[in-house]
Design a protein that fits this description.
There is one protein chain. This protein has a domain of 37 residues. The chain contains two helices and no strands. The model has no long low-confidence stretch (mean pLDDT 90).
Amino acid sequence: MLKLAIIFFLISLIAGFFGFTNIAAGAKGIAKILFFVALTIFLVVLVFGVLLGVMVF
């Protein structure tokens, strides 16, 4: 998912460079959403990993 966020970020940069501002804004929004979803999933997995590690040991 983080890979998709980076791809959309690059699309946003390229579109902004060539003057396609609406496409750049849309790609930036998608990249931001995907980044925060990936970050949330990472934090949830990290918390569950720590909690389950404490219960096992």
